[in-house]
Specification:
By secondary structure, this protein is of the alpha+beta class. It is about 20% helix and about 45% strand.
Length: about 140
């Protein structure tokens, strides 16, 4: 029983470490995803700009956020995604909402009988001037 408690504590600590914002991570505006159609065995690379919708089979994927650590840190890219299944004549069904990590694709994975989707990385860094509020950008403060 003691070993089980230690294992549960370790898994909890691992989750807390991975789900916390990566230290020094910088925001990017494009998420690079890879998708697998398990029926046809075709692998597709998808580039999704934040807020845009991309279709992959019957899935619609919306990227909400993408963070990537700088090259001098331990490599990690993480993206927050919303994934919906949309079939003709049926209401859309949410199949995934959460963070995916490039270094641990199985940690918080999409569970779908036909498709797999995972994060490869982020690109197009958001500059610090784009992060400033519009009023601050106009006044230069």
């Amino acid at each position: 029983m003691m070993g089980f408690r230690i294992a549960v504590g370790f898994v909890g600590l691992l989750w807390a470490t991975l789900l916390s914002a990566p230290a020094g991570a910088e925001p990017y505006e494009t998420v690079i995803l890879q998708g697998l159609d398990k029926v046809t065995a075709r692998v597709t690379t998808l580039k999704v700009n934040l807020g845009d919708v991309v279709r992959f089979g019957t899935l619609e994927i919306i990227a909400r956020h993408c963070d990537k650590r700088p090259p001098e840190d331990t490599p990690e890219s993480a993206a927050f995604l919303d994934i919906w299944e949309v079939r003709p004549g049926e209401a859309a069904i949410g199949v995934f909402r959460g963070w995916m990590f490039a270094s641990s694709p199985g940690l918080n994975a999409l569970e779908h009988p036909v498709y797999d989707v995972w994060v490869l990385g982020c690109e197009n860094k958001i500059s610090s001037s784009e992060e400033m509020a519009p009023a601050e950008a106009e006044t230069g403060k």
